[in-house]
Amino acid sequence: MATIGRPFGVLLMFLYEFFSSYGVAVILIALVIRIVLLPFEMKGKLGSMRAQRVQPKVQEIQKKYASDKAKAQQETMKLYKEENASPTSGCLWNLLPIPIMFALFFVISQPITMMMGVPAAYTEPEGAIYQRMEEVGFDFEEGGGGRHVQIVQAQFIHDHFEEFEEFEPLGLRAVNFRSFGMDLGRTPWSFIREEDWSDSSTWGVGILMVLIPLLSGGFQLLHTKINQKIAPPGSPEGAGGQMRTMMMIMPLFSVFIGFTMPAALGLYWTAGTVLIILRDVWLTKRYNRVLDAEYAVRNAERDKKEKELEEKRKEAERRKAEGGEETRNLNTSKRKQQSAERQADAEKAAEWKKKNSPQDGKEIQDEPSRVDDRRYARGRAYDPDRYPDVPEDKNEDDGYPDEVDIEDEAEDIAEIEETEFEAEAVAEAEELGDDEGLDEDDSE
After folding, report:
1. pLDDT in tens, 27-84
2. Is-contact 222 277, C-beta < 8 A?
3. pLDDT > 60? residue 293
4. How far apart are CA 178 and CA 114, in angstroms?
5. What is the DSSP string of 370-401?
6. What is the rounded (10 degree) CA torsion for 53, 57, 58, 59?
7. Facing residues of 401 across strands?
8. CA 440 → CA 427, 430, 432, distances in Å?
9. How far apart, in whole angstroms, are the C-alpha atoms of residue 152 and residue 438?
10. How far is CA 284 from CA 1, 3, 41, in A?
11. Element (DSSP H or E) covering residue 160
């Protein structure tokens, strides 16, 4: 927490030295913190308002699917996605100021180390500042204990700062917690218990000290009422019962913090609550206009789409009434449409096959081009009688010679060739005999 609180301590010290008023510095640091957190709070506020606007629809879904929790959750998530909303929007940003408040508590309750930046070793019993306070006359038994001991010590150092000027290089400063007529370093509850109320001068300061926690709780209650008034019906802020009871706890917690913590922290809480009220009123008016414009555009697009679907539906009904082809349901998903198309194609193929396949037990007539299930295997224009002068040795079915005719023809050719070969051999022998006779005559 010291790591977070130290930057706030530096800022608080700067504001105090600039304005020379601890109370003004506390109020201004509340303003600075609200400005720093404004961008995050704007984002959280917009998300919270989106979630509030869909609450009536969420309740309708829960009633519709009361018996099916899984379906109700699925539809709710779908609704949030369509509306660009989230049920947890704004929760983180609403919790962000809490650690800042605790950091400021450390800054206010430990001003010497957290605000001035003096090392803690100097304020311990062996430290130089501790020993100097003891020498000057600080009563550690009366004011040296408790969670807010450094506030009492810092006020003592302010009243006797000339004795502590040598520690100024360490960061030690004279900080006066008295502002607006009050000691903001004290808790209102300790003031009520310890002060002498018989002294009339105590009443004025006492009233101011008591007013700080009361104003803190009062402004917190006002903030709750404003949120309930500006919240849309059906949202948690506008609902009653347990949620309303929980929202009443915050003002009571503010009163408790205001009485038990230093008055400076109560002053910061009060100033911060006032700034939060102004912020919420401004952001609510602004984002109501933004969301109204978004919903107007979204509703216009939705109405346009519904109008187009209605026109298509009427056109389909008109075509159907006129006896046209049956049209497709526009609400059918693409996957179902593709499945229906595949089924229709399969039915058409089966019908074609049934029509064109040969019938069992019946001879197919007038289909000379068919070969088994192939209806036009020989061609659509095939005609077996196209060539009527086909030789007798041609097959009537396919127009080619039979295998037996081919073998007989081959044998005839072989016999003719053999006869021709024998005739040629006899002729050659006769010629040879004639030649030999001539030679004998010549020799005689």
Report:
1. 999 999 889 888 888 888 888 888 888 888 888 888 888 888 888 888 888 888 877 7
2. yes
3. yes
4. 19
5. -BTTBTTTT-TT--TTS-TT--TTB-TTTSSB
6. 110
7. 394
8. 21, 16, 13
9. 172
10. 33, 34, 12
11. none
- Token pair in block for residue 309: 């679907």
d(CA 111, CA 120) in angstroms, rounded, equals 11
DSSP letter (8 states) at residue 325: P
For the stretch 265-276, pLDDT in tens is 889 889 989 998
Residue of 178, 280, 261 lying closest to 219 (CA atoms): 280
pTM, two decimal places = 0.63
142: its two tokens: 């009366």
Q: Quickly tell me which residue has 């007038």 as its tokens.
A: 366
Question: What tokens does 283 get?
Answer: 């952001």
Burial of 398 (0-12, 13-18, 19+ CB in 10 A): exposed
Rg, Å, the chain Cα set: 54
Going from the C-alpha of 364 to that of each of 361, 369, 370, 378, 399, the distances in angstroms are: 10, 11, 9, 15, 21
